[in-house]
Specification:
Strand content: 15-25%
CATH architecture of the largest domain: Up-down Bundle
Low-confidence stretches: 172-209
Structural class: alpha+beta
Number of strands: 13
Mean pLDDT: 78
Helix content: 40-55%
CATH class of the largest domain: Mainly Alpha
Number of helices: 9
Shape: flat
Number of domains: 3
Distance between the termini: 88 Å
Radius of gyration: 30 Å
Order of helices and strands: HHHHHHEEEEHEEEEHHEEEEE
């Protein structure tokens, strides 16, 4: 068979070649663009999966803590708050769980647990709303549900470590996720209660560095700040605060216009290396340091926590804050952030008067400072005498708790109020709590769970 011969001019050949080349390049660019878009979409999906995964962990952690607190409370009002919170968190957890790229069968046990704990706590919240206390049988059920939450969290945290190291990507290691997720909560109790009809979004605040440290005070500062100062006086206050050896020159980089007006200062070291500059806000009234941050690297840890606490106390006393006591701390990168609160002469704790001091554990130098809440809340107080006795307050504490110590404490309440309470440090099984009983009427105002970690003590 003979193929026909085509006589193509040189010019036509060049045109055909050009067209084919353009087509080939176009195909290549199209393929590249499709690949790039796919990669971007994969990254987007992976970020969405990771967000849902971390939110799921947060939901279940809140469920577990509120289950523990429900066991510690002796107030139907507080119990209702905890039950409602668990109900909301379980709904949110179910939504986040549903966003993970895992088959329904692999998630069925965990999904079943979240539905049951939410439904059960919804029923108990309605019971509390009718001023009916949770009975012992229901408490036992809550303890079981809490143990299941602990089991689920153990597996989720293992996955979280793999995710942060990069060894887990949900699309690529689906089998491993399915295996662990299906293992958790496989023996949940057989409860049957009504289904949730509404979703809620007002989730509880998490408190990470001491009771009531998330307090937000509205309006004007309660503390008498003093007279107006100028920029030069603010620079003098900054120099005194960090020491002359740390100061080359000071420049103003901003002007704070919040509830407390400030001069924003950059303290540049003597070698002019601005990467080592200390940043600070000094109040325009009274010249008080509102906050300070020294970014220096702390490479070694030589001081104990007790030594750091004393360093912080001395620093505060030297700068006009003598009546403070340490409460909670968090260690990180060879530093420790310590929360100090006010204390009256009679030993009454004043939680609204809160300061945070960050201390380098190599030399004891103060490398961070936050007095915002103290300056907003501190004022001369007339501490009232309790209207109920310690024994009367003790009778209001849940009988399942073993009380270890009792103190008087001023705590913040909503609407910028303060209340004198008896603070009971108590234990239930392996958990520790703070229970706050109103010293005027005996109402239970709050319950906080103490969380012990290797790098610090927290409350929730």
């Amino acid at each position: 068979m003979k193929f026909p011969k085509f006589n193509i001019s040189r010019k036509s050949y060049q045109i055909i070649t050009l067209v084919l080349t353009v087509a080939l390049l176009g195909t290549g660019f199209y393929a590249y663009d499709v690949t790039r878009q796919k990669q971007e979409y994969d990254v987007f999906l992976q970020n969405q999966y990771q967000r849902a995964f971390r939110d799921l962990i947060s939901n279940i952690e809140n469920i577990r803590v509120n289950l523990d607190k429900a066991d510690a409370t002796g107030s139907t009002v507080q119990s209702n708050t905890f039950m409602s919170s668990i109900w909301r968190q379980s709904y949110s957890a179910s939504e986040n769980l549903g966003q993970l790229p895992i088959t329904h069968s692999s998630l069925s046990n965990t999904a079943k647990y979240l539905t049951q704990v939410g439904d059960y706590c919804y029923v108990l919240s309605r019971q509390n709303a009718a001023n009916k206390e949770i009975d012992d049988k229901q408490i036992d059920q809550l303890k079981k549900l809490g143990s299941y939450a602990t089991n689920i969290l153990d597996d989720l945290h293992k996955l979280e470590v793999d995710m942060e190291s990069g060894s887990l990507k949900f699309g690529n290691t689906k089998g491993k996720v399915q295996q662990l997720m299906s293992k958790a909560s496989e023996s949940t109790a057989d409860l049957s209660f009504g289904k949730i009809e509404k979703r809620f979004t007002d989730y509880p605040n998490m408190i990470y560095d001491g009771p009531f440290s998330d307090l937000k005070i509205e309006g004007k500062p309660k503390m008498d700040m003093g007279a107006d100062i100028n920029l030069d006086q603010a620079k003098e206050a900054a120099t005194k605060f960090v020491g002359k050896d740390n100061v080359g020159k000071i420049v103003e980089y901003s002007s704070g216009k919040g509830l407390i007006k400030t001069f924003g200062l950059e303290i540049i070291p003597k070698d002019n290396d601005r990467s080592k500059s200390i940043n600070m806000d000094v109040t325009k009234k009274g010249g008080k340091v509102l906050w300070m941050l020294n970014p220096r690297t702390v490479s070694t840890e030589k001081l104990t926590q007790e030594q750091a606490v004393e360093k912080g106390k001395k620093f505060l006393a030297d700068h006009g804050y003598p009546n403070l006591v340490d409460t909670y701390y968090m260690k990180d990168y060879n530093t420790t952030m310590i929360t100090y609160i006010g204390v009256e002469e009679n030993g009454t704790l004043v939680y609204p008067d809160l300061m945070k001091v960050k201390i380098a554990l190599d030399t004891g130098e103060i490398v961070g400072f936050d007095a915002n809440q103290y300056l907003m809340a501190h004022h001369k107080r007339e501490i009232p005498k309790p209207k109920i006795t310690e024994e009367q307050a003790k009778a209001k504490v849940n009988k399942r708790l073993k009380i270890e110590r009792i103190k008087l404490a001023i705590i913040p309440l909503p609407a910028d109020r303060e209340q004198l309470c008896y603070e009971f440090k108590a234990k239930n099984d392996s958990s520790d709590f703070f229970v706050y009983i109103n010293a005027e009427n005996g109402n239970e105002e709050n319950v906080l769970k103490i969380i012990y970690q290797d790098n610090g003590t927290l409350t929730q």
